[in-house]
């Protein structure tokens, strides 16, 4: 099985911490040269130090706020002009929790721009060089809510579903060029976002954090939360030559929690 990413360049969004950083770490171990993108420059500096460079890879970081469309376009254009990007990992923090009936139009618009439009902008910027190389892997880190909506995540459920449909359509259009587009759907994974969700739920229900975690874990057949590295392992596999015939999929990494086949 060919799992080597030597000679490949990966652009990993939201990679200063959590799942994004775990993916970058895994891709570097497999030989890829990684370009880390996130808003916090200090965290990026710390993150890049954790990446393996056994094959003499030169990893890079760029601090960028994807809400600034013009700055994002300029940065990606400069990166692609210098080298082909073979792997794009679209990953950004999810919208705030809350019932969909309470969501404002502004919340939907902001989430749509942050997730779907940013993904689209980045993908359009890199696919030209991917076509030239005959190799491309686009991975979108979304949520199991594209299978079954999650409670109290109204805006997130809506936008994640839109991203999944966009990705499937993009997979259909790019498959003939050796480019695959797949979605990884993390379940409850130990990240800062999970910690925030647990804390908010505990506060609203008047419970201890341990009680909230126990309730959540009881719904997971694996009887534990996932680790960022476990999500990263799936994403990294989808980036390899071995996964060339896996295209247009949405794969849960959730310990079996999602109640659909």
TrEMBL record:
Residue stretches spanning the membrane: none
Gene3D superfamilies: NAD(P)-binding Rossmann-like Domain
One Pfam family hit: adh_short_C2
Superkingdom field: Bacteria
Family: Belongs to the short-chain dehydrogenases/reductases (SDR) family.
PANTHER family linked to this entry: 3-OXOACYL-(ACYL-CARRIER-PROTEIN) REDUCTASE, NADPH-DEPENDENT REDUCTASE BACG
This protein's name: SDR family oxidoreductase
Species in which this protein is naturally found: Flaviaesturariibacter aridisoli
